[in-house]
Amino acid sequence: MNTAVLAKSLYGKPTHEVGTKRGIEYKAFSKATAHLAEYVGTETANFAGMAEALCENQLLWTVLAADVAGDGNGLPEQLRAQIFYLTQFTNHHTKLVLNGKASPDILVEINTSIMRGLRDCATGPELVSP
């Protein structure tokens, strides 16, 4: 699956949606995390499925890193740096999982923590362009 297809599957159809930016990010994390969680704690014969889930998760983190690296990002600098670090960790750990040297468990835990933060900081609805 190429990156364009993965991005579209993570972020949905190209129309305006009503919701918060955090809500849309939450949905993207929820989808990627659910797919990744299918491979936690099990020996999988479906390596291709696990690799796809890891790729979706890595794409999500790459998009997030690009966002926090941009000048227009309104998050505090320390939080932006922490998110960027988590992206680097996610990339490194993904390689370990793909090489059979680690489990995706920690990736699911990190995503779940991010989702918790997004949910706890939710604000009122606004029009968001995908």
Structural class: mainly alpha
Query: Which architecture per CATH?
Result: Up-down Bundle
Our count of domains comes out at: 1
The tally of beta strands, per DSSP, is 2
Terminus-to-terminus distance: 21 Å
Q: Which class in CATH terms?
A: Mainly Alpha
Shape: globular
In CATH terms, what is the fold-level topology?
Answer: Four Helix Bundle (Hemerythrin (Met), subunit A)
DSSP helix fraction: 55-70%
| H/E element order | HEHHHHE
Q: Give the uncertain stretches in residue-range form.
A: 124-130
SS element count, helices: 5
Rounded Rg: 15 Å
Mean pLDDT: 83
Content of β-strand? under 5%
Could you describe the largest sheet, including whether it forms a barrel?
Answer: 2 strands, antiparallel
List the strand order in the largest sheet.
Answer: 1-2
